[in-house]
Amino acid sequence: MTDFPGAPSGPSTGSRLRVLAAMSGGVDSAVAAARAAEAGHEVTGVHLALSSNPQSFRTGARGCCTLEDSRDARRAADVIGIPFYVWDLAERFREDVIDDFVAEYAAGRTPNPCLRCNEKIKFAALLDKAVALGFDAVCTGHYARIVDLPGGGRELHRAVDPAKDQSYVLGVLDAEQLAHSLFPLGDTTKEEIRVEAERRGLAVAKKPDSHDICFIADGDTQKFLAQHLGTAAGDIVDADGTKLGEHDGAYGFTIGQRKGLRIGRPAADGKPRYVLDISPVTNTVTVGPAEGLDVLGLTAIRPRWCGAAPVGEGRYTAQLRAHGEEVPVTAEAAGGELRVRLERPVRGIAPGQAVVLYDGTRVVGSATISATERRDTAKI
Predict the structure, then answer these.
(1) pLDDT of 83-130, one tens digit each?
(2) pTM of this prediction?
(3) What residues are labeled active site?
(4) Which of 37, 95, 303, 331 has the smallest set of CB atoms within 10 Å of its CB?
(5) What is the CATH number of the domain that holds 141?
């Protein structure tokens, strides 16, 4: 295997690598590609066409992968002075990300499509193709750091900018994928990246960041799911099973949701009610008080480790949402599962979400939550 750069946050000038830079058309990936080229690597830019029928333009900060984004990526590659290609991965993206997203909601779970895209597209389909074509590494604009260990191997760490850290959605990467990954932006703040982009003459310097789910450009997840799953009337009930209202599809709700419940009668105590459970089998949505959302423990499946799997029970911190805070936990991997005890309750954690374990700033690994334990010890 080719020797990889020793700098913890991106390419170094030591070894000259053949690098495939994934360029979304945004400022982060453009600067990442520019830094890799400036470090002396042989860089080729590639834009992933992930939509079969891309829109011509973005709507503000919503969506991505439009024709406008492709053109922005090409212009950035021209300024950097690197070859540029567009690769059509729309069918793979539909199968591995969009279809998975719909199926998870249909099953009453809450998926993270960005995490799935990193696992299945950017660091599987793209990386596999890159390696097959003779590239040494894939470079992206993610905010995270890679630390090369003196004795060999690599570790994934949080970015220095906590507001932009994206290590949570990279927790699915295994040791082999990390060996072929470059994240040049991990030691930089977003403000510094925009200043650098302007200095480099990149037209995307002030382009808004993409938000929400990239394949739902208007941000209306419920409408998107209704188009794919249709309507299916069901009941909204309280914890005792008393019917409080009706819905058009259980998939339109998420654990912890408060607004849009369409409950006719107020709670006896006058307090707001939240979604506590979603049952696709009975097409029932259960609501109750906020205290019913307190999670004390969880079980997660399909663990993926950013290195060697941990042995025995250990103390870590866990992040349970893409922009959530860290929580002290005790965790143990056994029998293909990860069992986690939270040192303090956390509200609104749902099956389908990812739990990512950290040891300090180091990412230990990730797993998909399959069940949660509430205060009453009921598994949801």
Answers:
(1) 999 999 999 999 999 999 999 999 889 999 999 999 999 999 999 999
(2) 0.88
(3) 117, 214
(4) 95
(5) 3.40.50.620
